[in-house]
Structure formats: structure tokens, C-alpha cells
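Appendix B. Worked example

We walk through a single record from start to finish. Start with the input: the chain for F420-0:gamma-glutamyl ligase, Anaerolinea thermophila, length 255.
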Amino acid sequence: MSLQVLPISGIPEIKTGDVLSEIILKALEENNLSLQDEDILVLAQKIVSKAEGRFVNLTTVTPSAKAYEYAEITQKDPRFIELVLRESRSVLRCRLGTIIVEHRNGFVCANAGIDHSNVRGPWGNSEDWVLLLPEDADSSARVIRDQVFQKTQKRIGVMIIDSHGRAWRMGTVGVAIGLAGVPGLVDLRGKPDLYGYRLRITMIGAADELAAAASLVMGQADEGTPVVLVRGFPYPLRESSIQELIRPKELDLFR
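Next comes the structure step. The output line below is what the pipeline stores for this chain.
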């Protein structure tokens, strides 16, 4: 079966407290799509964060001395930097315009994934509102997956994705930050290649490959397609965690 990555149109503006599983199932019906076993729903991080109320207004943030120190280097708002520090385990790189951190969920990203675009809070100036990543994106994905199963009896996977840069290449790509029922890694060690050679080190970052494909369909600006349906994923679904994709520090050559 060929891989299909199908946009789901009609997802409304998400508000705090919205039940994403119900919204997605309604949109699927309106798109004349029905779930099948082994399908995967891929969600943009932003709608998950919005549903979980991860909004922060910068006027409510008091910067620490460390935040002021990094703000002077980066020339960013010290209140924004304070939120980055709160969401991070450690700061890895800091220079004009950039702060790279290890997020408290383990992955490395710029600004702790805190977003300012397409964010509108319930009060005050929209310029003062930012959106944090989900508290625990694996848990968020599991909740959505389980709710969909309760309503449809279909065994599916759910992924939450975000856009990350990379230390060794230009441009952002979609990557997985939360998984439920989707393998993070696919281990091909011991499998034969075309000529019978047994692979020794090949492990596929299958969730990130799928995240990149889904991100192309979603778009990165004002396309308004935060959910896609994936059918024909070439690997068996199984339980996993985003921790599968995080390289241990002792193997990370960029630290």
C-alpha cells in the first residue's frame, strides 16, 4: 500500500478546554473520511497546547537575573527568556538572536519551543501572548488516541509534531514531540539488504520521517491545516515514547 497523507480541513480555532478528539472526528466526517485500524492522526503541537491552555501573557512574567543575562546576549525580551529557562533543563548555546536549550522533556530546540505566531490570548494585547509546548506531549497523544478508540473502536496511532531546526543543516523540519502507538525508531539491524548483507547499525527515525511528511501537508504559516490523516504507514504500530528518538548525551557529538 502506498503512503497517504491526507489533510483534514475544517478544524476550527482551538480554545482552552476543547476536546480535540471530538473536533477531529467531526472534521473527518465532514471530509467524508472514516478511520481504519492502523491509521495515524498527526497533530500540530499548537492546537494541543491551545486546548491544554498553555498560554502565558508576558506581562505576568518577572524575569530572573539569569534571564536578564541571556536577554542581553540574545537581544530578546527578558520575560520571554525567563519562560525559556523555566521550560528548560539547561542552556546549550546562546548568541545574538538565538538561545538553544534542552527542553525539560529531553529534546534540544530553540526557545524551548515557545511560540509567538498565530497566538491570541483571552485578554490584553496579542503581542504579549506566547504559547508553551504541551506539558507532556506523549501523555497528550495517548489521551487523544484512547478517546478516539472509545468512540470508534479503531486502533490508531497519534503523533504530535513541531518544527525544529538542526545543528548540521539549514531550515526547519517537522519532528515528533509526542507519540502514542507509533514507533519512534524502527530497528533494521540484522535485516538483509538487496545483496544479502546484514545491516549492522541502521535504525530508522520513522516517527520523524512521518512528521516531516505531515508538516509538508500542514504548511508552516497560515494554511490552517493542523491535523492530517496518515494511511499506509510502512511499519507496524506499537507503543513507544518520544524518549526513543532522543540521543543520549554521551553519544551526542554536538554537545
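Two observations about the output. Helices lie at 20-30, 45-51, 65-74, 78-86, 137-152, 206-218. The first strand starts at residue 4 and ends at 7.
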